[in-house]
């Protein structure tokens, strides 16, 4: 028997993603990004993102179905990111998913964006080990999670107490005059720089918690650059980028290894947009190797937001026979990471099953 065909819809931030997955097989991954429309503001403008999702949704669905070579009627289940994310942006994807589920007569699964960033790895490396520790690093989140079961049980271990890692990349890029989003240009500039040129602070490095802090690092970079400019000296962009990137990768990998050790877990998964970072990937590989931890990181294209990750999580949930969400589920901008599938409607009634 072939596995169910699952549609995944992602609209939590500035990417409109529509993916189609069967089991662990990726059939289509259509992504339309509104990033260009936000660039001049130096950050995502929620209302602009929502409108862009509205325009991109149906064309992205049509592209995904065509790329997969399936008909809409072949879809067995519909999954959508219900949270966390930008409220208005989430609303577009959740409403579209409800409409497709209703029109196709198929079940709806409102799922957690963060769990989807982890589940996507199954498309590349097969069934997730259990339990695993996940390091989730994106524009909106930096968390360490214990993952006994990505479809049903995700436990928060630690998180940033201020800025997310991706947010720090985006803000430092602005200070350096690099474009938004800052991750890719900093990653590129850092290749020509010396990571030991400047010793930037590593927040919460020596405490025993599994929390992060990036606000101090971001401010330290800004002060360093301002001091150079005030002295009329040129800013060595490559060295600043490399030194900043080293500080971020150093803290993230140190705490990820600490989390694995503290919980006796031998498998680490890294997900989210910042997992596309070349230095984070290299340093994680090196430190996991030293610590005897197996490391899994999806390819960069699956790390940043996309619909395939939502379809991958949906496929896992469907394969377990877990109950779907009621059609009345809300978009929940602050959905807790422990809630993998949304089951309650705004009135608090549990899913009928
Ligand atoms: O997961 P994602 O696509 O969206 C959110 O859920 O936030 O992550 C976007 C973040 C942005 O802050 C972007 O600068 C960062 O991921 N990012 C990177 C790289 N590619 C994207 N950060 C560092 N290095 C990269 N290569
Ligand atoms: Zn994300």
Question: Which labels suit this protein?
Answer:
353 residues, alpha/beta, Nucleotidyltransferase, domain 5, 2 domains, 5-stranded mixed β-sheet, 12 helices, 42% helix, 18% strand, globular, disordered C terminus, binds 5'-O-[(R)-(carboxyoxy)(hydroxy)phosphoryl]adenosine, binds zinc ion
Task: Explain what the structure shows.
This protein has 353 residues and is of the alpha/beta class. The chain has two domains: 5-120 and 306-342, Nucleotidyltransferase, domain 5, CATH 3.30.420; 129-300, Nucleotidyltransferase, domain 5, CATH 3.30.420. The chain has twelve helices and ten strands. It has helices at 35-38, 46-68, 87-104, 113-119, 122-125, 165-175, 183-190, 215-230, 237-262, 278-291, 300-303, 307-319, and strands at residues 5-10, 15-22, 25-33, 77-83, 108-112, 132-137, 142-149, 153-159, 267-271, 294-296. The strands form two sheets. It has a five-stranded mixed sheet, sandwiched between helices. It has a five-stranded mixed sheet with strand order 8-7-6-9-10, with helices on both faces. β9, α10 and β10 (294-296) form a beta-alpha-beta unit. The structure holds 5'-O-[(R)-(carboxyoxy)(hydroxy)phosphoryl]adenosine and zinc ion. 5'-O-[(R)-(carboxyoxy)(hydroxy)phosphoryl]adenosine binds at residues 13, 138-140, 166, 169-170, 181-184, 187, 272-274, 276-277, 304-305.
